[in-house]
From TrEMBL:
Keywords: Methyltransferase, Transferase. It holds the Pfam family Methyltransf_11. This is SAM-dependent methyltransferase. Gene3D superfamilies: Vaccinia Virus protein VP39 (3.40.50.150). One of its GO terms (biological process) is methylation. Residues 43-134 form the Methyltransferase type domain. The keyword Methyltransferase applies.
Length: 264
């Protein structure tokens, strides 16, 4: 993920925090794209290879290239998807030839890229005329309830939590801004969709522990707190989360998908 190595540096911590939900959303995204087999794919900001793995399993690609800035993530992706080629680089300047792919895709990355228009222009450049550019991002401000509950509780205790809240800091993660950004990149036939999955936790500890891993916006914020503030947020969360009779917690998780076609 271009420019985000410091935030997303530990593959194992990311897997505990968001990886399992990422794996559940990726197939829904591919179902929506409904691509034919035998195509050339580029996965920008491939991370640990969650989306690349789903492409390899479901879409029978002729070629699959993943690009990310984090070496630890690339190593995980290469181990997970041996049929892919995983390269270190910047999503805004991949160094790949233009019009070389049928699809340029990205999963849960766009809001972390410092120059979003340039990244989308690069995705459009990479695909052949008539090719597809598509991505998905978490609905941070709405139904990504794992994070929404955390930051709503944290901001009530510590206003500084707003600096880390992607619901505030990533306004592009909504259908209208996503569609507008794709149109500005010169893409046609732009569409958006909601990708919804449930997130079940056996108990509060299963929900809370991944926030202590230090990888991701909320865990990074949590790691910098003094113990008293962290404990206050933990107990506020325990009180507000919907909890079943056996301690189970069931939340909604939504990502927004967007796709467009390169004219020509």
């Amino acid at each position: 993920m271009g420019g985000t190595t410091g935030l997303w540096g530990a593959a194992e911590a990311y897997e505990r925090y968001m990886g399992r939900w990422s794996r559940a959303v990726a197939p829904l995204f591919l179902d929506w794209l409904a691509p034919r087999t035998g195509l050339d794919w580029m996965d920008l900001g491939c991370g640990t290879g969650v989306l690349s793995e789903a492409v390899a399993r479901r879409c029978a690609p002729a070629r699959l290239v993943g690009l990310d800035s984090a070496p630890a993530f690339l190593a995980e992706a290469a181990a997970r998807v041996p049929q892919g080629a995983f390269l270190q680089g910047d999503a805004t300047d991949t160094g790949q030839p233009g019009a070389a792919f049928d699809l340029a895709v990205s999963g849960l990355v766009l809001n972390f890229l410092p120059d979003k228009p340039k990244a989308l222009a690069e995705m459009a450049r990479l695909v052949r005329p008539g090719g597809t550019v598509a991505l998905y991002v978490w609905d941070y401000a709405g139904q990504m309830q794992i994070m929404r509950h955390f930051f709503d509780a944290a901001r009530a205790i510590d206003p500084d939590a707003a600096r880390f809240d992607d619901g505030l800091n990533a306004p592009i993660c909504r259908p209208a801004p996503l569609a507008a950004a794709f149109a500005a990149a010169g893409l046609a036939a732009v569409e958006t969709t909601a990708l919804d999955i449930p997130a079940a936790f056996a108990d509060f500890d299963e929900y809370w522990t991944p926030f202590l891993g230090g990888t991701g916006s909320a865990p990074k914020y949590c790691a910098g707190l003094d113990e008293a503030t962290r404990a206050a947020i933990r107990e506020a969360l325990r009180a507000r989360l919907p909890t079943g009779p056996e301690g189970e917690i069931l939340l909604a998780v939504r990502a927004w998908g967007v796709k467009g076609r390169r004219p020509g």
